[in-house]
Task: inverse folding
């Protein structure tokens, strides 16, 4: 019992010595690294604001150049460059402060941001005038944009100089802090290491004396048969326990190697299966990512295609591309926003036009709308998925020409939106599943990814009520869907006044 206590005592002391020394050096090093990294990071970031302002100024210059070249040559390449630089410039503007602030620098950033918005509006209006061949309009617009641009460059340079002076002072202060911290850290580390070495030398000397006798016996074994076990030396201390433990350890090591080998083979098989699954998942993710299109790239490409079609005299192709661009732009912009009945019906116009190009004009679209309801607000992307559902599951499966009728009228505090088609009609069971918010056709809409279950769910959340629509089969053939949209009190009062 005493021997076990001695053995345990020696082991704990050795571990404690090295643990304390390692922990002390580690903590000091980590502290030094933390202070240095923090200071270096702050130093690295000192002039980041100046770099950003320089990049903002350079992008503005490139934007001006592309605008001038387009006005001079009316080249589609220069227009594409203009839109590219415009997007880069807008992205950089998002990093600027836009809120009220007491700091002169933040106030200058706010002024630059809103001044830049004015410049971009003037530049875009100039381009539109150029397209419309409004010579006096685009000349005045270009002169206005140049005036704003020069003022912008002066404001950016002024802010850059102010920030640079402040950053220079911060840099000198941080550099001084770093030098002092480095010197103090070096001295502290030397003191700790010297003390640790002295302490370790004293402790190790006290531990190694009892091992001298065991070392003599170990030398005898080294000259003889290596197959024999360690001799058990009765020293009435932990040395005896060590000798016995070594004999057991060899046996355990042999068993452990065998078990480790078997476990390694099993784990290798598991890892191989896991890697196969991960590769399959990554391949699926890659295919999904490859199917995505950057909306800005899509819009710019469609706009460029529309301009090219216009320049080459392909008016129908130009109109089709413009409708397609407006359709996708609305999808991206209005998915999570509220909108108006006017914008929703305009989207339907774009969609029907696109579908008629695909189906050679076989879809006849009629609408009857109370124009006093144009400004009633509702969730975005509601009507188009319903119309697409009518085309996909109603009209496309019938013979002859299809018809879609849209009527919007007011009834008290409600706005009723009726959508009718002359398609194959809907089964009552299917209508019930849709009104319960379940998917009736498996997947959602192809072009938007929005199914009827999504439409119903968003309507219920937006208006906070369950009964938001009715779906029924028409006696004359086809399907009829009626949406019940709640309008705000102000909208209802306006209509009553008009009446």
Result:
């Amino acid at each position: 019992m005493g021997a076990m206590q001695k053995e345990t005592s020696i082991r704990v002391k050795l571990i404690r010595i090295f643990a304390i020394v390692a922990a002390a050096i580690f903590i000091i090093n980590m502290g030094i690294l933390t202070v240095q990294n923090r200071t270096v990071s702050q130093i690295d970031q000192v002039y980041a604001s100046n770099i950003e302002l320089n990049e903002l100024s350079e992008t503005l210059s490139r934007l001006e150049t592309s605008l001038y070249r387009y006005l001079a040559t009316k080249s589609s390449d220069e227009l594409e460059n203009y839109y590219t630089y415009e997007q880069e410039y807008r992205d950089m503007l998002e990093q600027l402060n836009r809120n009220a602030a007491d700091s002169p620098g933040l106030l200058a950033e706010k002024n630059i941001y809103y001044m830049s918005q004015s410049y971009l509006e003037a530049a875009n209006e100039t381009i539109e005038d150029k397209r419309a061949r409004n010579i006096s309009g685009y000349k005045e617009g270009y002169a206005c944009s140049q005036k704003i641009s020069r003022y912008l460059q002066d404001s950016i340079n002024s802010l850059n100089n102010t920030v640079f002076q402040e950053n220079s002072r911060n840099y000198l202060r941080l550099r001084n802090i770093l030098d002092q911290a480095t010197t103090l850290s070096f001295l502290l580390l030397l003191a700790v290491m010297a003390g640790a070495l002295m302490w370790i030398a004293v402790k190790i000397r006290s531990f190694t004396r009892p091992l001298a006798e065991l070392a003599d016996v170990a030398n005898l074994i080294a000259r003889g048969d290596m197959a024999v076990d360690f001799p058990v030396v009765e020293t009435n201390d932990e040395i005896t326990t060590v000798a016995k433990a070594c004999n057991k350890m060899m046996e355990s090591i042999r068993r452990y190697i065998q078990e480790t080998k078997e476990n390694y083979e099993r784990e290798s098989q598991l890892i191989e299966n896991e890697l196969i699954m991960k590769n399959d998942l990554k391949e699926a993710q890659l295919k999904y990512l490859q199917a995505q299109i950057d909306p800005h790239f899509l819009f710019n490409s469609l706009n460029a295609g529309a301009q090219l079609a216009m320049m080459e005299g392909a008016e129908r192709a130009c109109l089709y591309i413009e409708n397609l661009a407006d359709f996708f732009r609305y999808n991206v912009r209005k998915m999570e926003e509220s909108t108006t009945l006017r914008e929703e019906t305009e989207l339907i116009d774009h969609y029907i036009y696109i579908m008629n190009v695909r189906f050679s004009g076989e879809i006849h679209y009629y609408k009857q709308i109370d124009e006093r309801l144009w400004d009633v607000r509702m969730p975005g992307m509601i009507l188009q998925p319903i119309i697409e559902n009518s085309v996909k599951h109603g009209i496309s499966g019938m013979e002859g020409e299809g018809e879609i009728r849209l009527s919007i009228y007011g009834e008290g505090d409600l706005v009723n939106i009726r959508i009718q088609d002359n398609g194959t009609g809907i089964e009552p069971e299917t209508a019930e599943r849709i009104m319960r918010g379940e998917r009736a056709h498996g997947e959602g809409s192809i072009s938007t990814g929005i199914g009827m279950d999504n439409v119903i769910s968003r309507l219920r959340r937006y208006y906070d009520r369950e009964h938001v629509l009715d779906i029924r089969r028409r006696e004359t053939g086809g399907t009829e869907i009626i949406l019940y949209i709640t309008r705000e009190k102000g909208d209802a009062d306006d209509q009553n006044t008009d009446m």
The chain has four domains: 2-205, 226-292, 297-334, 335-498.
